[in-house]
Amino acid sequence: MTRPLIAIPARFSATTSALRYAAEVNARALVEAVWRAGGEPAGIHPADTGTADRLARFDGVLLPGGGDLAPSRYGATDTHDTVYDVDTLQDAFDLDVARHALASGLPLLAVCRGLQVVNVALGGTLQQDMGGPEREHRHLVHPVSLEPGSLVARAAGAEKTDASCYHHQRVERLGRGLRVTARAADGTVEALELPGADGWFAAVQWHPEDTADEDPAQQGLFDALVRAATR
């Protein structure tokens, strides 16, 4: 059986000494989680043209984590000192991928920055900084409550899970049509879904790939994406 092809937008990296040059990369743990689920992961080059045609050959999309979106993308007129790794091309491409995937019904799993991209693509906003080291969710594993019956709860096979997080921003105003289906104890939005979407879609603020090799609940998110992409 042919593995469904899962597009993963690449991330620009300036620190890839083994390759001798700057590169476009994806986390190995993320790629392996898609492979374990039965998918064929394929990194795709960020470009500013032809997104719809490029996505047409794929069976699903995984929007991964990464640096911050430019605050101007969601209407902010200032930039917090902690905003980092902003890239104009990366932002434009990720937003375009999110919009085309949702509009075409292409199965889509969005992770960390990916969740924020989808929220902004649908007109939402972000809190640029959660309040410093004592409030941010970096290098933190914490329990998350999942809405019973939601896509994320069904994929995880649980209504509570331990989430591995690495972010200092979070959803402020929800994008059009989005519904919150998981929160952390401090109220941070941890999962989003789009009721009535043409295709399977779920977004999580944490990094399920961090522990997917040993936690069936986290691997279940990748399994659900690949199952949707197989149909």
From TrEMBL:
Endoplasmic reticulum as a keyword?
Answer: no
Matching entries from PROSITE patterns are given as: GATASE_TYPE_1
Q: Has UniProt tagged this entry with the keyword Transferase? A: no
Origin superkingdom: Bacteria
Q: What keywords were assigned to this record?
A: Hydrolase
Q: Which residue windows are coiled coil?
A: none
Mind telling me which Pfam families this protein's record contains? Peptidase_C26 (PF07722)
Q: Which GO terms describe its molecular function?
A: hydrolase activity
Q: Which InterPro entries match?
A: Class_I_gatase-like (IPR029062), Peptidase_C26 (IPR011697), PuuD-like (IPR044668)
Name of the protein in question: Gamma-glutamyl-gamma-aminobutyrate hydrolase family protein
